[in-house]
């Protein structure tokens, strides 16, 4: 491996001069700078960023921990962080927690070993005590898609209740009174919050949901299909389905159509997230747009500012709102 000493020896300068050239700093003459750059290119020298981080106690990296990057939602989240990372000329380090608390903590510790002080964490299951301790130890730790009152200044989150309430009220305005809900079995706050939003909207309109018309399943297309099968098997009467997310909504539409139930002529379906698949499925899906890329980019800026001391913790929160996207999966209910 070519070292900075090798470059200095061949170029006939000190290692300090090579370092100044590499970092575009200090007083170095044009001729000397050109000679050092030529030697760097000829030898194929690459600066050791890890070693530099150990000396400076900082790094040019930003870390991201998600449950499962292969899922479209978390891929969008990573894309949002990368936008900010590129703008600020930082490298991005990624790690999956695989929905396990132990793995999540291992991922965070790995980033810390790389002197990564700006970390965006999508934490599903770590308890508040653990996250509070991490926040005390990591200057630029920012939580995304989770709200903890004691860490409000570090939380970038979405109002899930308001989003679910809005899409349910939209269905009611379209004439739907018999509404079924397919929710996620995952034990985090999002499914609970969205279910509260649906039931609140129903109550506000003097309506109620039959318990048989609420089904939980895995938050993917197969889960949506299975939830619809259960609704039909339970004898639930419904003219519309509110799905926990777009993947479940698409699975629900597939199951309904396979059963000879037309969407939206017989049953309307709405989702949540506004993933790419919402515009590619047939019919195109009415859903609540979750600004995950925008939120992730914002969270990255906040994490960087906190880690560098540019931003101080203050009594403000970072709340985003979902937006209704009307497409073709909802029809008026005339019955």
Report mean pLDDT, rounded to a whole number.
Answer: 91
The outline comes out as elongated
CATH superfamily of the largest domain: Response regulator
Q: Can you name the CATH architecture of the largest domain? A: 3-Layer(aba) Sandwich
Rg computed from alpha carbons, rounded to a whole number of angstroms? 25 Å
Question: Number of DSSP helices?
Answer: 13
First-last Cα distance: 76 Å
Order of the strands making up the biggest sheet: 2-1-3-4-5-11
Total strands: 12
Instruction: Write the CATH fold name of the largest domain.
Output: Rossmann fold
The amount of beta strand, in percent, is: 15-25%
SS content category: alpha/beta
Summarize the structure.
This protein has 335 residues and is of the alpha/beta class.
What does this structure look like?
The protein is an alpha/beta fold and 335 residues long. The protein is 46% helix and 16% strand. It contains 13 helices and twelve strands. The protein has a six-stranded parallel sheet. Strands 7-6-8-9-10-12 form a six-stranded mixed sheet, sandwiched between helices. Helix 12 (277-280) links the parallel strand 9 (268-273) and strand 10. The N and C termini lie far apart (76 Å). Mean pLDDT is 91; it is low at 52-57.
Blueprint (SSEs and pairs):
Layout (H helix, E strand, L loop, with lengths): L3 H8 L3 H8 L7 H14 L5 H8 L4 E6 L5 H16 L3 E6 L4 H13 L4 E4 L6 H10 L2 E5 L10 E4 L1 H14 L5 E6 L4 H16 L9 E4 L3 H13 L6 E4 L2 H13 L9 E6 L3 H4 L5 E4 L2 H17 L9 E3 L2 E3 L10
Parallel strand pairs: 1-2, 1-3, 3-4, 4-5, 5-11, 6-7, 6-8, 8-9, 9-10
Antiparallel strand pairs: 10-12
Helix pairs in contact: 1-2, 1-3, 5-13, 8-9, 10-11
């Amino acid at each position: 491996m070519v070292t900075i000493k090798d470059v200095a020896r061949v170029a006939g300068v000190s290692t300090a001069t090579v370092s100044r050239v590499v970092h575009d700093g200090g007083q170095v003459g044009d001729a000397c700078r050109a000679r050092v750059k030529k030697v760097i290119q000829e030898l194929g020298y690459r600066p050791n960023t890890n070693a530099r981080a150990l000396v400076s106690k900082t790094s040019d990296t930003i870390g991201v921990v998600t449950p499962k990057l292969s899922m479209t939602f978390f891929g969008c989240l990573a894309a949002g962080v990368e936008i900010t990372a590129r703008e600020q000329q930082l490298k991005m380090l990624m790690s999956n927690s695989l929905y396990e608390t132990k793995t999540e903590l291992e991922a965070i510790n790995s980033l810390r070993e790389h002197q990564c002080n700006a970390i965006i964490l999508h934490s599903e299951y770590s308890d508040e005590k653990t996250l509070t301790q991490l926040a005390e130890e990591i200057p630029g730790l920012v939580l995304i898609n989770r709200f903890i009152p004691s860490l409000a200044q570090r939380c970038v989150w979405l109002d899930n209740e308001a989003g679910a309430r809005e899409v349910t009220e939209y269905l009611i305005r379209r004439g739907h009174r018999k509404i079924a809900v397919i929710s996620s079995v995952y034990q985090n706050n999002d499914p609970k919050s969205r279910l509260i939003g649906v039931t609140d909207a129903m109550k506000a309109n003097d309506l109620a949901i039959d318990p048989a018309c609420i089904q939980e399943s895995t938050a993917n297309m197969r889960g949506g299909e299975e939830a619809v099968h259960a609704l039909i098997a339970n004898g639930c009467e419904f003219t519309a389905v509110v799905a926990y997310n777009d993947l479940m909504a698409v699975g629900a539409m597939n199951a309904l159509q396979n059963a000879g139930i037309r969407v939206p002529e017989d049953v309307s379906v709405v989702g949540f997230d506004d993933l790419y698949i919402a515009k590619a499925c047939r019919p195109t899906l009415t859903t609540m747009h979750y600004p995950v890329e925008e939120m992730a980019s914002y969270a990255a800026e906040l994490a960087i500012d906190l880690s560098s001391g540019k931003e101080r913790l203050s009594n403000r929160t970072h709340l985003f709102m979902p937006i209704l996207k009307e497409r073709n999966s909802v029809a008026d209910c005339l019955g």
